Amino acid sequence: MAHDDILVAEELVKSYGGVRALDGASIRLRGGEVHALVGENGAGKSTLVRILSGTLGADGGTVRAAKDARIAVVSQELSLFPDLTVRENLFPQHPPLRLGLLDRGAMDRAARPVLAELGLDVDPRTELGELPLADQQLTEIARALLRRPKLLILDEPTSALPAAAVDRLERVLRTLTDRGIAVLYVTHFLDEVMRFAQRVTVLRDGLVALAGVERAEVDVPELVSAMLGGRPEQPPRRARSLAADRPPPVVLSQVDVDGRLTDVTFTVRAGEVVGVAGLQGAGHLDALAVVCGRTTVSGGRVDVGGRGLPRSLRDAVRAGVAFVPSDRKRYGLMVDRTVWENTTAVSWLALGRGGIAPARSELVRRTAELTERLRLRGGPYDLVARLSGGNQQKVVFAKWLATEPKIVVLDDPTRGVDVGVRAEMHRIVGELAAGGAAVLIASTDLAELTEVCDRVLVFVRGRVTEEVRGERLTEHGLAVAMQRPEVAASD
Ligand SMILES: Nc1ncnc2c1ncn2[C@@H]1O[C@H](COP(=O)(O)OP(=O)(O)OP(=O)(O)O)[C@@H](O)[C@H]1O
Ligand SMILES: [Mg+2]
After folding, report:
1. CB of 46 closer than 6 A to ligand 1?
2. What distance in Å separates the CA atoms of residue 325 and residue 128, rounded to the nearest whole number?
3. Phi, psi angle pair for 34, to nearest 5°
């Protein structure tokens, strides 16, 4: 180890059951530097962090740390206690004692400068759960700093932080590195990498794709390429024919949602498939929530299906919206009921069509038509719980197709389904659009957006910053656009 190395890890290997999370990853962390660690979801970043901090054992490889190298970790999942006070959260293990009692004065004296440094203006007696999420995240960082670490690891600390808090964090990191501390900074925000970090390591599928390169030697598109690897890109899709004469089924005009969306304007026309994309908290999912009547709107104009702003999901359904959620176990299905009960649940319960329910034989007949169209493996009388995950997802689709929707909102519709079902879902989405539906889709899988969408609206910090279409509608193009505007604009 060189004299300024705080920690050196070599050839780390780790599997969870059959899943290889790390496949020979190495990293070298030096005092006085912010080292950024980036990679797609599931690349192995948190696994690496857990091994470096000693909370998880590796299957192979070595970790060597400098003498007395105290490591503090701010983990991706908040690990604080919401019903304890800020003060109690700050000193979980070794609180200062006086005559064997908790020395609250000493706690506050120690905490005050750290809280001030982070710009966290809170009374230490406040119950943590009462603070906004961003302040809770800063409290967690404060707790880590109070341990006076030689190495500070931050695993995606900024996803809930507003821009001003990110600025403060940048200043704090600078102070820490001036003191010779090493910082490992895990993030999906590449503009933060460019701002804070001296070095960057890119993980891809448990392997190091870029090893500790100097920030000055890379730019955002290169980082994105390293993260995605040499995956073949889809050819750009053909434009669909749109019903330009009719008013668009979805219109958002200068819409504000407190703290989440600012001045968002877009339309989705009949026959069109429009994607929304963004990093966590960027606002793209809030836009879906507006269309589905699942959020309060504080300004602007919304029209869904010609009926104005939907006030509830039921309202949205009446306006012709079908909503396929990502968490289908919780929101999408009654798993202990039959296929026919599920597929017909919304169409006559939520819509109350005609007041009285059609005969059961009629509902079963309609279900059979739908399951055939979707190539579902299972009949109308099968229990949903007995179907495979992919076939359950088809039942969710069937249930919404039964309402003959004018507007289809999809949130990660193919998460957890196999490639065959995924391709069929995409075929169905295409059919829905061809049949005149307006489709709005979010997906954590960027390839999915490039495959099914005519255009994709990119959200950054609550605003639509770009519309990506045509030749530029590639995974790489989207991933670069999802980074913040100051970076996207400068490349
Ligand atoms: N406890 C676990 N049990 C089984 N598999 C796991 C576990 N933790 C992680 N994995 C798997 O290991 C791989 C790497 O996960 P890891 O959490 O390290 O990724 P990451 O880069 O931190 O992703 P993200 O950006 O989503 O946080 C993934 O395929 C994940 O599903
Ligand atoms: Mg992680």
Report:
1. yes
2. 31
3. -95, 125
Between 389 and 444, residue with greater pLDDT: 444
Which has more pLDDT, 327 or 171? 171
Using a 10 angstrom Cβ sphere, with 0-12 exposed, 13-18 middle and 19 or more buried, the burial of residue 329 is exposed
Question: Nearest 5°: phi and psi at 275?
Answer: -100, 155
Residue spans per domain, the chain:
5-228, 250-490
Residue 184 CA, ligand 1 centroid: distance in Å: 18
What's the gap between Cα 175 and its chain centre? Answer: 30
477 C-alpha to center of ligand 1: Å? 25
pLDDT(127) > 70: yes
pLDDT in tens, 293-344: 999 999 999 999 999 999 998 899 889 999 888 766 656 788 888 998 888 8
Residue 449 exposed, middle or buried by CB count within 10 Å (0-12, 13-18, 19+): buried
Relative to the CA of 206, which ligand 1 atom is closest? 14
Fold observed for domain 5-228: Rossmann fold (3.40.50)
pLDDT tier at 490, thresholds 50, 70, 90: very low
β-sheet with 5-16: strand ranges across? 19-30, 5-16, 60-65
- Please report the pLDDT score of residue 105 as a whole number: 81
Whether 407 has a pLDDT exceeding 90, the answer reads yes
CATH class of residue range 250-490:
alpha beta
Residue minimizing CA distance to atom 3 of ligand 1: 16
What DSSP string runs through 410-454? EESTTTT--HHHHHHHHHHHHHHHHTT-EEEEE-S-HHHHHHH-S
